């Protein structure tokens, strides 16, 4: 399973990259705004800076909501760097744009997916990635992981190559459960990825090993 980090924060992307487990980055307009990145030139330069840190795919989301504008914006984003994946919202024109980019060999990530039907459409349009938002479903008492299972079943039934990118991942158990279910990729914050490291028995065990070593060495 691939690990993407879901942030536009360069320091956190660098930290995840240095851990050696980072396969790519996803961003969205809210994450860019959170970092204070505004203005077209700054936004484009920021995507380029992200591509310089990671070797993996970097999702850059269009702001446009009509087909012609999505195509123009997506082509400009894709021209920035070979690692850029054009992120498109799951709306009618987004599906049309996913089909357009797929025929041109440009990678896409269809985002804001909350149902199996939407994921089926994204695959039919030839999207590279589909992004079901599991955390936001959990937030409204709907089982986000169940949606991943449904999409896995549908894609496997027909051999769709669209990768299931479990998005809106919030914590370590989301990642573990996505791995059990067969999501191709997860994207989440650095905190969720680093939480996989933690176990008190590891910390206690290491403390004991080091204490025993120090005691033996002092004799
Ligand atoms: C997906 O690519 C989105 O950027 C993201 O995962 C949304 O997560 P959130 O629900 O934590 O905002």
UniProtKB/TrEMBL annotation:
Sections of the chain in a coiled coil: none
Gene3D superfamilies, per database record: Aldolase class I
Main location per the UniProt record: cytoplasm
UniProt xrefs under InterPro entries: Aldolase_TIM, TAL/FSA, Transaldolase_3B, Transaldolase_3B/F6P_aldolase, Transaldolase_AS, TSA/FSA_arc/bac
Record carries keyword Transport: no
GO biological process: carbohydrate metabolic process; ketone catabolic process; pentose-phosphate shunt
Pathway: Carbohydrate degradation; pentose phosphate pathway; D-glyceraldehyde 3-phosphate and beta-D-fructose 6-phosphate from D-ribose 5-phosphate and D-xylulose 5-phosphate (non-oxidative stage): step 2/3
A Pfam family this chain is assigned to: TAL_FSA
Localization terms from the record: Cytoplasm
Catalytic activity: D-sedoheptulose 7-phosphate + D-glyceraldehyde 3-phosphate = D-erythrose 4-phosphate + beta-D-fructose 6-phosphate
Top-level enzyme category: transferase
PANTHER family per UniProt: FRUCTOSE-6-PHOSPHATE ALDOLASE 1-RELATED (PTHR10683:SF40), TRANSALDOLASE (PTHR10683)
Designated name of the protein: Probable transaldolase
Biological source species: Flavobacterium akiainvivens
């Amino acid at each position: 399973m691939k690990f993407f980090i879901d942030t536009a924060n360069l320091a956190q992307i660098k930290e995840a990259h240095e851990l050696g487990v980072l396969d790519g980055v996803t961003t969205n307009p809210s994450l860019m705004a959170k970092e204070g990145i505004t203005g077209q030139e700054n936004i484009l330069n920021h995507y380029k800076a992200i591509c310089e840190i990671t070797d993996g795919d970097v999702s850059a989301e269009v702001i446009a909501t009509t087909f012609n504008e999505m195509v123009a914006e997506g082509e400009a984003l894709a021209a920035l760097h070979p690692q850029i994946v054009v992120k498109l919202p799951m709306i009618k024109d987004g599906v049309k744009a996913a089909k357009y980019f797929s025929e041109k060999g440009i990678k896409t990530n269809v985002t804001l997916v909350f149902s199996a039907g939407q994921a089926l459409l994204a695959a039919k349009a030839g999207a590279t990635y589909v992004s079901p938002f599991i955390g936001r479903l959990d937030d409204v008492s709907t089982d986000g992981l169940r949606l991943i299972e449904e999409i896995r079943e549908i894609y496997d039934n027909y051999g769709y190559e669209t990768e299931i990118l479990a998005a809106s991942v919030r914590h370590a158990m989301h990642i573990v459960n996505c791995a059990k279910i067969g999501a191709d990729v997860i994207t989440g914050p650095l905190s969720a990825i680093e939480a996989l490291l933690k176990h008190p028995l590891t910390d206690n065990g290491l403390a004991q090993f080091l204490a025993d070593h120090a005691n033996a060495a002092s004799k």
